[in-house]
Target: Serine phosphatase RsbU (Regulator of sigma subunit)
Amino acid sequence: MRKRAILCVDDERIILTGLKKQLKLVLGDDFIVETAESGDEGLEVHAELLEDGYDIPVVISDYIMPGMKGDEFLKNIYDQKAETISILLTGQADTDAVGNAVNEANLYRYIPKPWEPEDVQLTVKEAIQKYDAALQIESQNAELTELNEGLEKKVEARTEELQTVNEELQSLNEELTQTLETVSDQKDELEIKSKKILDSIQYAQRIQKAVLPSKSLLTDSFSKHFIFFQPRDIVSGDFYWCRTIENRIYICVADCTGHGVPGAFMSMLGIAHLNQIDSSYKGNAAQCLDELRDYVKTSLGQTGELGEQQDGMDMAFCIIDTDTKIIQYAGAYNPIFIMREKGQPIPEISNRTQFYEQDDLVLIRVKGNPQPIGVYPKETPFANVEIKIEENDLIYLISDGFVDQVGGDKGKKFMSPKLRKLLFECHNLSMQEKHDLIKKTFNDWKGNYEQVDDVTALGFQL
Model:
């Protein structure tokens, strides 16, 4: 049996001790877990393990350390052994650092501090599985290469026989061969260009996935939840974000201008600002959107001049107090939906609130302000709405890509009435069944039509 090791590098010994215990719980005796307190020491330990014949599938590193930073350390590991899977574990790395690690060190995952043990354990297990799968593919590729070489030799031999038999066609064959070589060169050139573009977009996808909330974070924040996330392209202009700080859960679903690469850049801008929220932040949901709007306008240099590009994002943003069971909501176009049982109090909020009844249920829809997060001709402060969460309330945040999807028999938009009907239909289903029905309904409606926008539907219950 081959010897295997995991290397963890952090300048705080207590973190290394905790991380080692958490990994041993899930890895058992199949791996040894080695630690180092700096990048330089980590490189020494890595070299010694390789010299002793250890296979090192995964290296975990902090970002801020004395001397060598985490992304530089992981790049050195990548240069020594490119197959090793890197994980950046820190509370201080910015998107530039994550991007450097992705580009220079083949970063697999960025996990913010403080982390959840289950998240780290699951990430490492998946990373090991990916590493082992890559080794298996490499072995299979070697076998295929050997088979291809054998086939090529047979083809060459057969070609020589045909050339001998068909000498009278030699001139025509040479002309045809030259034509095929020219076509092949052109094809190779197009494939290289296409691959470079695709590789860049896939790097962006990996960065975007790394900064979206993990499944374990949503599970820890809510008793029940589901997320239906279907980008139109490889990367998405939609994003969802969640953070729990003490007794407050911050959560949102956003739809950025455009989709694909431009939309993804906007989503990273929004996430970068939201990640600055910490325990010292005391603002309400509306103030969060006001500050995010200022940040977007400053970052994009938006002044409101005529003809200026009006990039921005729509968003439904919530802050939930888990002690008082009060949810704050502020919206930039995007509404919040609350499915409530009849007999529970019905809130009197504002003229932006609509109520829909069916059987023993009431669907409450609170509309956001009719303005984006970004430059807008008639900007007003966002409105903050407070709603008391009652027992068995189900809360939905859904981007407009769902109702705007063209499909059906007549090629029309899905529209809001069908969405409300769908929410009533899936109420008594489990969260997984809700996800499956919502996904199936959307894709059945879309049919053979192209998806027009990114789609996100998030449902949760305290």
Remarks:
- The two ends are 47 Å apart (CA to CA).
- The CA atoms of residues 152 and 158 lie 10 Å apart.
